[in-house]
Amino acid sequence: MIASILDGIVLGFQFGLLGAGLTLVYGMGGVLNLAYGQMGVIAAITASLAMDAGASVLPAVGLGLIAGGLLGLLLDRTILRPVYRLRDEARVLLSLLLTLGVAFIVDGFLNWRYPLKALNLFISGGAIEILEVPMRRGSLLASAITLVIMALLFVFFRYTILGQAVRSVIEDEEGARLVGIDPNRMMRLILVLSGVLAALVAITRSMVIPVDVQAGFPITVFALIVAVVGGLGSVPGALLAGLILGIVNSIAASTIGTFMSLVILLAAAAVTILIRPSGILGVAE
Amino acid sequence: MSEHASATGTSAIGGTEPGVSRSLPSLLGFIAVVGAALALVPLWTGDSRVLMGVAVLGLTFACYTIGFNVIFGSTGQLFLCVGALAGIGGYGAVILADTVGLPIIAGILLATLAAGLTGGLLSFVAVRRSLGVIFTGIVTLIFSLTFEALLLGLGELTGGENGFLIKSGADSFAREQIPPYYLMLTLVLIFLLAHGLLRRSFIGWAFRALRDDEVAAALAGVDIARYRVFAAFIGSAMLGLAGATYAFTEGRISPTTFEFATIDVVAMVMLAFGGIGTLFGPIAGAVTFTIVDEVLIEIGQLRHVAYGALIIALFLWMRRGLLPTAAELWTKNRRNEWKK
To answer: CA spacing 20 to 30 A to B274: which of A36, B21, B30, B312?
Structure first.
């Protein structure tokens, strides 16, 4: 039981970060990015290709992160431009459909060009015992990295001018414009950040299980569930929801099997939406 | 366009086909023409088992797209569970016939009813909790994924990942080469007629009112909840019936038959291409895409790249779909001619 909870926490940190990347973009610009998982997959495949070409792990990972961020920048500069001209639900709907197209393009290309490629950053060495439970080194390193990133995000949003500017746009776009903040530039920044976050999750995930070219859609779905349960637009909500869902998932998986644990996870998400459509930490509108 | 779009979101994307289906004779005439044209297809493809399979699948997708259109196009409810509702029909009918031992027709009817009730329930919940387009989409997507996970999890009943061969009706006409095509075509024509009649009735009037402006419709006395649930029930029953019929003509059933990635995405593209909310758009979309898909089969995985590019192009430049855009060009042309 303790083992499942610890596994769940490891998974939950990653879920949380994943949800945060998606929820930020939604909260900021009303854009639901269905190519989110593909950002992570592109990063993972880039890193894997760089390592094939002889790069060592750290530069390869760096390249992967850049690739994720660049895809975010590319989305912002190209297909999302007409999206920004719409408002409210029409904006969400168009962004969702266009990014679905992007997801297809990325998936189709990767499956065609690199069908068997996967990123695999297993950390060697024996297990480390925590609370008398042996934990894999990869899981622990992944969690440590994820926690550091969360702390950095917190500092960024809380204490830097840029982070506060981003928050002000999320809070009130018109008001932010009036005090001289350019919402479009903030949106670009957040899309790049979201690409980097997706990349980070994909790369840290590969320390535990291989991330292959088919991983995009599942990553997007998990991010969506976490973001919805946490409240679309709420970063703390996403982190909390990620942790809860990660633990629920691990316990369910160890007691009743993988497929049924997915059912429970999905049911939890559905129930949250129905009871509290704004999510556990979201603000009701 | 954008200001009013906030009401339901779909009016920004959908369109109407002017002129079609105004009077009953013209509606019947149009359906007869479509039916006659499609009935000729086996003259070209009848010799090839593979091509007939493709044609039957194309008509099945036409059915799915009509069902999805009744729900999304008519009342703006984004149901991302087309495959799952068709799967309730398919798996339901097959399990009732094979495992429980009911007659095939009874199995299909019960499963169709189950799919309709499920869709109606989803819609009822969405209306009750006043979920918008996006949240309806997310809840129904979650429903789809749950359905897929259940198919894999309940392996003893569903055959798990591999599915199973259908014993019932194994030596009936449904498994021959050409009859399934006409069976599916009959279904397409019935669906078209049902949707056409629905649009002509006061129900269609209520659908249009609530799709264009929900608040105004409510103020004018349209019971929005009732019509939404009704549209979801009818559309979902269509999906279930099509899924069940297709399963029996295929002779085997597996989770991929009703997968989100293969059914929902394709149905959405077909509908968007043909024209959301139009009567004949689903047919135009399904026929075009079945042909394009067959032509592109050589390039394998790159097909997905082509689809992705097409989805983007569609929603960027032809947001209202083929038929409405064509109708607009046609009337514009005629007006110009007349001016000369």
So the answer is: A36
In the numeric block, the tokens 């490891």 are attached to A10
pLDDT in tens, A232-244: 888 888 999 999 9
- Tokens 């984004």 locate to B78
Cross-chain Cβ contact A105/B3 below 8 Å: no
* Nearest residue in B to A111, CA atom: B301
Partner-chain contact B302 A112, CB within 8 Å: yes
Q: What is the mean pLDDT of residues B273-278?
A: 86
A139-161: average pLDDT:
90
pLDDT tens, residue by residue, A42-98: 999 999 999 999 888 899 999 999 999 999 999 999 999 888 888 877 888 889 889
Grouping H, G, I as helix, E, B as strand and the rest as coil, residue A14 is: helix
Closest residue to A259, CB basis, from B141, B149, B316:
B149
Q: What percent of chain B has pLDDT over 70?
A: 91
> How far, in Å, are A26, A186, A191 from residue A161 at the CA level?
21, 12, 18
CB nearest A86 (choices: B2, B78, B133): B2
Does residue A130 have a pLDDT over 80? no
DSSP per-residue codes, A195-231? HHHHHHHHHHHTTTS-EETT-HHHHHHHHHHHHHHH-
3-state helix, strand, coil in chain A (%, to 5): 75, 5, 20
Angle among Cα B281, B282, B288 to the nearest 5 degrees reads 90
What pLDDT does A13 receive? Answer: 92
CB contact under 8 A, A79 and B316: yes
Q: Do A102 and B13 touch (CB under 8 A)?
A: no
Q: Report the CATH fold assignment for A2-275.
A: ABC transporter involved in vitamin B12 uptake, BtuC (1.10.3470)
Q: Per-domain residue ranges for chain A?
A: 2-275
Q: CB–CB of A79/A100 below 8 Å?
A: no
Q: What is the ipTM of this complex?
A: 0.84
Mutation pick from B138, B139, B259 vs chain A, by most beta carbons of A within 10 Å, is B138
Domain parsing of chain B, residue ranges? 24-265
**Chain A contact for B301 (CB, 8 A cutoff):** yes
* B13 and chain A in contact, CB less than 8 A: yes
